[in-house]
Q: What sequence folds into this?
């Protein structure tokens, strides 16, 4: 299936702001990749937590988890899910998103008033202010340095939400 939300590559220079947001999610069930088997695994996690999984909840869960790497906004998820479930309400979609967040399967952050969905694994997000795209910086040394520095400041969060805001379409001729 072609993914309409796939990010484009952005260059990594010209960082203009760094926003740290701390979240105390102590354990994630270790779901990664979020395709096929991983999604099934996530569904079993939800069942174990006692959630009643209607076909609607399962479908929205799949759509969220399959797109999580692209940092979709809540609105985008609702739009995508509505293509299959025309009567799907905004509040139902929101409830499902919160259910996944509380289960540690996703997390969320806000940029410019939009809620974005993110994977729970520790990583650095790079947000391009020109295109609105968000990509993950997976280089472990970046995160390691950051987490060590935070620890020295008394912050012991192993998975802080880190967002670097930068302009990727800067056409400076210097
Ligand atoms: Zn991310």
A:
């Amino acid at each position: 299936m072609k993914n309409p939300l796939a990010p484009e590559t952005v260059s990594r220079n010209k960082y203009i702001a760094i926003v740290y947001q701390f979240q105390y999610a102590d354990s994630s069930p270790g779901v990664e990749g979020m395709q096929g088997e991983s999604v099934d695994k996530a569904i079993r996690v939800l069942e174990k937590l006692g959630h009643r999984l209607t076909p609607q909840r399962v479908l929205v869960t799949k759509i969220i988890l399959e797109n999580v790497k692209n940092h979709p906004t809540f609105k985008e998820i609702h739009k995508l899910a509505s293509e299959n479930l025309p009567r799907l309400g905004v509040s139902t979609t929101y409830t499902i998103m919160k259910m996944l967040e509380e289960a540690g399967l996703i997390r969320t952050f806000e940029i410019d008033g939009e809620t974005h969905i993110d994977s729970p694994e520790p990583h650095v997000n790079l947000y391009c202010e020109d295109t609105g795209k968000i990509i993950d910086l997976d280089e472990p040394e970046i995160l390691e340095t950051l987490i060590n520095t935070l620890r020295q400041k008394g912050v012991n969060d192993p998975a802080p939400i880190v967002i670097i805001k930068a302009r990727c379409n800067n056409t400076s001729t210097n």
